[in-house]
Structures are given as C-alpha cells and as structure tokens.
Design brief:
Length: 313
C-alpha cells in the first residue's frame, strides 16, 4: 500500500484506512483472526477487515486475539458488505495493493487440501465406500475436493465405487443448491444464516462444486437455521460431537433427506462435520442453553441436576 493516508469509499460510507500497514487480512473468521494474530506476533502492522459483523463473535478464539491486536495498535474494521470486500480483494489482485493473498478458495491448492477428507474416509472405512456422503457447502471447495479425492482413488483401483454426494446448504443462502434444483447456472444470493462458514452468496468454487454434485448424481438439500441447531443438539446428545452450525449442516441435510425418503433405508452414509463448535460458541449457547453456573459443591450440582430432571446415582 502507498505510504500515505488513503480512503476507501462506497455509497454512503467512507472508511479511513491507515496506509502504513504491512499486512491486510480480509476475513473475520477463525482463519483470518489467526492470520492477523500471527502477523502481529511477528511485529508487522496489521489491518483486519471483515464483512458480516462476525468478527469477535468467536468467544473462544476471537475476543482474546482482538484484544491483543488492539493493544498492539493494529486497525480493525467491522461489518463491511461482502461485495465491497470482494472489490477490495480484486484491487489487491490487480496490483493496487501489495502484497496480496487471494481468497484461499480461489487457489488451486484448496481443493487438493480438501481431497484428503476423501482419503481419510476411505482408509477409515477399510476402502469400502458408502452409498452417500453428506457435506455442508459454502464456497464449494470442500465438496469439489472430496469428489476429486474419490475419483482419484477409483482411478487407481483403491475403491470399487463412488458415493453420491449430498450437498447441504442453508435456506438462508443456497446459490449452489439452487442451481442444481433449478438446473441452471448459479447466481449470487443474499447471505442470511447463522451458519457463517457456509454463508457465501458468491461462491468462489461454484463451478467445480456443481460439476462434482452432477457427476455423482448427487442430491441438493436445503435446511433451515432451526434444523441446523437441532442437528447440533442431536450430534452432541447421540455422538458426543460438538460442531459449529456450518459444520453440522450436512447432518441436518441427511436427517431431512431421510425424512423425505430421498435415501433408501438400507443405504450406508457418511456425514462430514466440517467445523468445530468452538468456532461459534455464541450460537451453541443459543442452541443448547446457558451452562449451569454453581459454586464448586457436589450437593449443589446434584440439586441443579434434579431441577432439570437429571438423575444421579
């Protein structure tokens, strides 16, 4: 960036940006926050920008790091519209700001990384493929990479069949699934879901994702935020798995597909939980309720359990 004070402008909004920064991080999710923390830890001057007000919503990771960045005098900008963020990335890619790291979903590396999910599934199932694989979809990188991994294994003879993909998206943002369901090219959508990690109205790898779903004769299933939170509780109660809303969207879609008769009762299915619940503690509390707060006393604990109908023997 030029060594002078600059201003980024959009309709009805003007944002002063200190130009004397070494690293511009665009994205307030866990990856962006951790990248900003790593850069600041090296003594670099950081500007962290995010789009949906998500920054700091991660109680476990975000708030302590934001405090660290603030103490170091780094700049944080919250709540920019996603299209404005995309414009900023495009300016960086065009060479107006250097150095520039493109969105990971735009690189050829990300689907190769996601391919390892398929390799792990195959190995853990002793190379016996399931009939279906359910997975949440945002930018489309993971579902495209997983499909590529399965195809590679099939090509070299490690597996003898390919699973059908179940593409899971939220009803609040489902541009890829809409393209499948309406059999037409994908179009941008508004982003309105608690499943932040897959709340992607302009998916960066939509074409690869659509190709994967169609090649596998896959199924597109959209679920509501309520169904996502219910799946979060279900996985915690039955499997001891704590997934973030986006991470459990695949499980929510699988449950819905079964209820709608889209999957045979004797089919084998793998559902991938793509994100840890600690990424979004706030929505976990909305889903499961506030934790019990008591003094460190066994009798008080038993008393609180009784109030909630929990029997302790």
């Amino acid at each position: 960036m030029a060594n002078q004070k600059t201003t980024i402008t959009e309709p009805q909004r003007e944002i002063p940006v200190r130009a004397e920064v070494d690293v511009l991080v665009v994205g307030g999710g866990p990856a962006g926050i951790m990248a900003a923390r790593a850069a600041a830890g090296k003594g670099l001057r950081v500007m962290l920008i995010e789009s949906r007000g998500y920054l700091g919503g991660n109680l476990t990771i975000g708030l302590p790091i934001l405090g660290y960045l603030g103490r170091k005098g780094n700049q944080i900008i919250k709540g920019l519209p996603q299209l404005f963020i995309d414009r900023l990335r495009a300016r960086g890619a065009a060479g107006e700001h250097r150095p520039c790291k493109l969105h990971v979903s735009l690189t050829i590396i990300d689907p190769e990384e996601a391919k390892t999910v398929a390799l792990e599934i195959a190995e853990q199932l002793n190379w016996e493929m399931p009939d279906y694989l359910a997975i949440s979809v945002g930018d489309g990188c993971t579902i495209a990479g997983v499909w590529k991994g399965f195809k590679d294994l099939y090509a070299i003879g490690f597996i003898d069949k390919l699973p059908r993909l179940i593409s899971a998206q939220s009803l609040g943002c489902y541009p890829i699934n809409r393209a499948i369901q309406e059999d037409k090219p994908w179009e941008p959508m508004e982003e309105n879901t608690i499943a932040d990690s897959i709340s992607v109205g302009v998916p960066r790898n939509a074409d690869k994702a659509l190709m994967a779903i169609r090649e596998s004769n896959g199924i597109a299933v959209n679920v509501s935020d309520e169904e996502i939170l219910a799946a979060q509780r279900l996985l915690g109660r039955t499997c001891g798995v704590f997934g973030e809303p986006a991470g459990v969207t695949g499980a929510a879609a699988l449950k819905k597909a079964c209820e709608q008769g889209l999957i045979p009762h004797d089919a084998t299915v793998v559902s991938v939980v793509t994100g840890n619940g600690l990424k979004d503690v706030a929505n976990a509390i909305k889903s499961a309720g506030e934790p019990i707060h008591i003094a460190p006393d066994l009798e008080l604990m038993v008393e609180e359990f009784k109030k909630r109908g929990v029997t302790v023997e």
